[in-house]
Amino acid sequence: xxxxxxxxxxxxxxxxxxxxxxxxxxxxxxxxxxxxxxxxxxxxxxxxxxxxxxxxxxxxxxxxxxxxxxxxxxxxxxxxxxxxxxxxxxxxxxxxxxxxxxxxxxxxxxxxxxxxxxxxxxxxxxxxxxxxxxxxxxxxxxxxxxxxxxxxxxxxxxxxxxxxxxxxxxxxxxxxxxxxxxxxxxxxxxxxxxxxxxxxxxxxxxxxxxxxxxxxxxxxxxxxxxxxxxxxxxxxxxxxxxxxxxxxxxxxxxxxxxxxxxxxxxxxxxxxxxxxxxxxxxxxxxxxxxxxxxxxxxxxxxxxxxxxxxxxxxxxxxxxxxxxxxxxxxxxxxxxxxxxxxxxxxxxxxxxxxxxxxxxxxxxxxxxxxxxxxxxxxxxxxxxxxxxxxxxxxxxxxxxxxxxxxxxxxxxxxxxxxxxxxxxxxxxxxxxxxxxxxxxxxxxxxxxxxxxxx
Length: 454
Known about the structure:
Blueprint: H1 2-5, H2 14-28, H3 31-39, H4 46-68, E1 74-76, H5 80-87, H6 97-116, H7 119-126, H8 129-150, E2 154-160, E3 175-181, H9 187-204, H10 210-225, H11 231-234, H12 251-257, H13 260-284, H14 290-314, E4 319-321, H15 325-330, H16 336-356, H17 361-375, H18 387-403, H19 406-427, H20 437-452
Antiparallel strand pairs: 1-4, 2-3
Helix pairs in contact: 2-16, 3-4, 4-14, 4-16, 6-12, 6-13, 6-14, 8-13, 8-17, 8-18, 8-19, 9-10, 9-17, 10-17, 13-14, 13-19, 18-19, 19-20
């Protein structure tokens, strides 16, 4: 164990890593329920998607732990599964879900090529440190928003007259939705607040496994409140695997349709989301230092790329690194043993799904909020005294939570960096930051994707 995961070198222990893996699993176990619900809208069988989610997340996360020694878990990504459902929806213009899986598979191959040619790894050298810290900070805010939403602490309040039809860009004096606080009359909100205060106190007291203890205790307290649903334990059923989607993707269909937009969007969003998550979480864990850190990041990107195509073969949308991995890192996870623990739990979920799914959102939301607190520390390392770096960093940070997208934040921040520093190079060259050619290429692709593609 010591030889494989180098626990002493990373100043950790087996107990700490296992607890971190458990913490990561519980904060992202919701994907086992949500992914089948979303993809079933395309006509896919829920049990088949559940199987693909468990096996895909389990295998690829195990590979991340065993081959890369990273404490990062992977699973079908939120947002990308919603985009998949839109592309393959049962509506006029929607394509067959098998064709959509073919698009995902091809995008994974593109990712593998980009990784093997070291283009993806070049991003680490191309992106200025201030933007890397901004990505970490932005992900912290983004994951906090997720915690607030699933915990009921934030709701959307409709302001104005009831709309008769959607009006783009509607303002508050017309038709508009604004964020608001959740109600204390909601038992789920009360449970979230209890879990947040409990877990926060445990973290402040530096209690080992404080975050995991908070999740477990909050889940148990939710039983008498009626928030924790244990009905699934009374009707334990073996998963029906008679309609698996393994190997049912259609590569010919994807090529025949010529879905350039779908292929590009999958690849573009995966590139930015994965880069942001891997760099942000690995940076927080202190795993990017030196040449060895760069080599390991390259291997992590290759595992991630494999996961995209592997997930499509199993029958699910894009498998990618999860921001919730930050909860395990916050719990002390520093090696691949954390990921191995999480991966094993995903595989066991094939048989223990009712047990894994009784953990309510109100129990995992506090962990996500606290991860946001811990990731905010990176904001102090941004060069705020240099406006050519400060504004792009700020835009990166603020765009992620406001648009609910890591890739949007990176696209906006990168574009601002290239434009501002190009102008500085022309007029105030001494204050400009060097622009790597790959940043220019990415900005051109971003402008094309957001400006001309649907």
